[in-house]
Amino acid sequence: MSDETYVVVGGGLAGGSAAATLREEGFDGAVVLVTVEDRPPYERPVLSKGYMLGSEKESSAYLHDSGWWSDHDIDLRTETMVTGVRLEDRVLELEDGGSLAYDKLLLATGSWPRRIEVPGADLDGVLYLRDMPEAERIRAAIEAGGPLVIVGAGWIGLEIAAAARTHGVAVTVLETATLPLQRVLGDRVAEVFASLHRHHGVDLRLGSGVAQIRGDGGSVTSVVTSEGEEVPAAAVVVAIGAAPQSDWGQAAGLSGDPGIDTDASLRTSDVAVWAAGDIAAVDNPRLGRRVRVEHWAMAHDSGPVAARSMLGQDVTFDKLPFFFTDQYDLGMEYVGHVEDVDETEVVVRGDADPAGPLAFQAFWLRDEVVQAAMHVNMWDDGVDPLEALVGRRVDAGRLGDRGVPLADL
Ligand SMILES: Cc1cc2nc3c(=O)[nH]c(=O)nc-3n(C[C@H](O)[C@H](O)[C@H](O)COP(=O)(O)OP(=O)(O)OC[C@H]3O[C@@H](n4cnc5c(N)ncnc54)[C@H](O)[C@@H]3O)c2cc1C
Q1: Residue 378 is part of which domain span?
Q2: Contact 89, 253 (CB under 8 A)
Q3: N or C: which end of the chain has fewer CB within 10 A?
Q4: Residue from 13, 133, 43 nearest 79 by CA
Q5: What is the CATH number of the domain that holds 19?
């Protein structure tokens, strides 16, 4: 039996799946899973989708039921915050003044929503979405009937907007860019999302930020936009992006900014430390560059790979980034990675007219090479034929021609 202790920090999908994999792979030393949250590891995508809509229960988010962790001899330490690491001593420092020694360490601390800094930002009813209690608060605000102001038309802001509109709540979305998701998708496809939300009754205000949040008796009553217009709000959801929670790892000397750099086996610049999930900036051999993405699939795939790497197995993380969203009756899957969307040519195949039944594929090309691809509502083909094209040189004209099978390109 091993006398080593492997510590995993982070009770999300990456940390939870890594700890589980250590046991599945037969590691019989001590496994400690530390999380600041008050519950066992869970996944987050459902929080802004089925849970917000009321169609899925909280229980659907958990990786395993609470008894599973002790049944597998995993020492799950909830409500335990790590504040630092002494790499040379192989010791974690805890917020309560305690410490925790490790032989090998996995950091899977995820991201945290960026805070808005305007007058009124601390009023009751100014909400963010990262964890389950926050999802409960937003869902309660939706069930109370709104009106809701959402700041930021990124994936999470738009998913919450879709859930709120499905409940019939009045929603205003403020977005400083000229289109929602413009930096990720480029104008052509971003316009589809803008039209989709307007079609469903969202008051989408583009090129518009927040000057001030106003309240009465400590609670939100309205948002004053950067144009000086006042929009009534019973709650304000701020969804302006997230930042990796890797400060203390960097402060200890691990390289990376933002996030924690790893090699293709997910090992960091310290020989006894690995990183996975949102915080891992991985040297990806398939892409030929370092990439850090905040996607469910990254957490799902990198946690187990990191665990096997900790066990000394010869593993390489070479998955392409993969992302999905669900908004109203739009389901989308996206594979690949675009560094600068303005340097790409976008090719659309199919019906991307928001007035019609949306069903199309889109491809982002640079120098005729496919960087990324997505489909909307084309579940018969799914993402596999798209993934096969990423990294391939193709003729843009033939790619956009629905008469040419993708397999013939
Ligand atoms: C609402 C929402 C919807 C999403 N929807 C999608 C989607 O549709 N598609 C998609 O691809 N991705 C989606 N994502 C992104 C996806 O959920 C993340 O990429 C994924 O959760 C990352 O997993 P992780 O394990 O790296 O980090 P997390 O899930 O963030 O877990 C990190 C854990 O570490 C804990 N922690 C952090 N710091 C410390 C510390 N110092 N000490 C102790 N514990 C600590 C945290 O509390 C948390 O439990 C969504 C995210 C959110 C929030």
Answers
A1: 329-408
A2: no
A3: N
A4: 133
A5: 3.50.50.60
Q: CB-based contacts of 209: which residues, under 8 Å, 6+ apart?
A: 151, 174, 176, 225, 226
Residue where a domain stops, chosen among 240, 258, 279: 240
Closest CA to 111 of 250, 277, 301, 238: 277
| Residue 46 maps to a domain | yes
pLDDT digits (tens, 9 = 90+) for 109-167: 999 999 999 999 999 999 999 999 999 999 999 999 999 999 999 999 999 999 999 99
Pick the closest to residue 359 from 204, 201, 192, 200 (CA basis).
192
Q: Are 50 and 143 in the same domain?
A: no
Give the residue, out of 7, 105, 278, with the most ligand 1 atoms within 8 A of its beta carbon, to mutate for a pocket test: 278
Separation in Å, CA 370 to CA 226, 287, 336, 362: 38, 12, 9, 10
In 258-327 the beta strands, taken as DSSP E runs, fall at: 260-262, 273-275, 280-284, 289-291, 322-327
In a domain, residue 230? The reply is yes
Q: Residue 385 belongs to a domain with what CATH number? A: 3.30.390.30
